[in-house]
Amino acid sequence: CSRPQKVCLCPFLPVHPLKVSTCLYIIQHPAEESRVLRTVPLLAACLPPDKCKILVGRRFSEDRYPELATVCRNPNTLILYPGAEATNLEEVAVMSPSSSIMIIIDGTWSQAKDIFYKNSLFRLPKQVQLKTNHSSQYVIRTQPTNTCLSTLECAAIALTIMEKNKSIQETILHPLQALCSFQLQHGAQIHHSKEHLLKNGLYDKPMPKNKRKLRRMELLVNNVKI
C-alpha cells in the first residue's frame, strides 16, 4: 500500500484478489489523483488487475478511448450514476444477471456531474443507482449528505449485488475502516456530512454568495433530495 509500516494497510487487504466476474471501469477526475486519502487504490488492491481498470481524465472521446467506447456500447455495461433515469441496481441484477461491466465515476459530486453530462459515451450504458440508507464509513472526509458514499463503498455494495456475495462488501470495506482508524489515532477528526452540520447549526464556513449553491444548502437542510 506504500504507506509507512506503522500505518500499513496491507494486513487489512485480502491475501488474494477477490474472484469476481464483474469488471469495473473507474473514471477518475484528475483532482482525485493528488488526494492523499483517496479510496480507489484500496479498491484496486482488492481486485484482480483485469477487473479494476482506472482511466483518469475529464473528457473521453471515442477517438482517444476506443476501448472505453466499445465498453460503453456493450449492452451488458452499466454506469453507476444516480438520477431520475437510473434504475435501482438490485432490480437490474435480478432481471439481467448477465451484466458484467460497470462504470463508476470517481470525484466530488460536481466533478462527477461534469464528467457524466459532458461525455456522451457515458449516456450509452444503462444507468443504475444504489438504493441504500447506509451512512458512509469514510468518516475522515466530508460528504454532502448523510447517505453519500465514497467510490470504494459504492463499488463494494455494487459488486456484492452483482456477484450475489455478501462477503465482498465486508472484504473491500476492511482496509477503509483501518485507514480511518489509523487517521483518527493520529489526530484526524471525524467529519460529519454537510447536511448534518447545517441541520445542527454546526456549519462554521461562510455561506456561499452564489444563489445556486445557497439553494443546494437549503435543500439539504429541508431533506430534499438533490
From TrEMBL:
Boundaries of every DTW domain copy: 1-188
- Supply one GO BP term: tRNA processing
Provide a Gene Ontology MF annotation, just one: tRNA-uridine aminocarboxypropyltransferase activity
- Where does the source fall among the domains of life? Eukaryota
Keyword annotations of the record: S-adenosyl-L-methionine, Transferase, tRNA processing
The record's catalysed reaction(s) read: a uridine in tRNA + S-adenosyl-L-methionine = a 3-[(3S)-3-amino-3-carboxypropyl]uridine in tRNA + S-methyl-5'-thioadenosine + H(+)
EC annotation from Swiss-Prot or TrEMBL? 2.5.1.25
Return the Pfam families for the record.
DTW
State the PANTHER family in the record. TRNA-URIDINE AMINOCARBOXYPROPYLTRANSFERASE 2 (PTHR21392)
> What family does the database annotate?
Belongs to the TDD superfamily. DTWD2 family.
This chain's protein is named tRNA-uridine aminocarboxypropyltransferase
Organism this protein belongs to: Manacus vitellinus
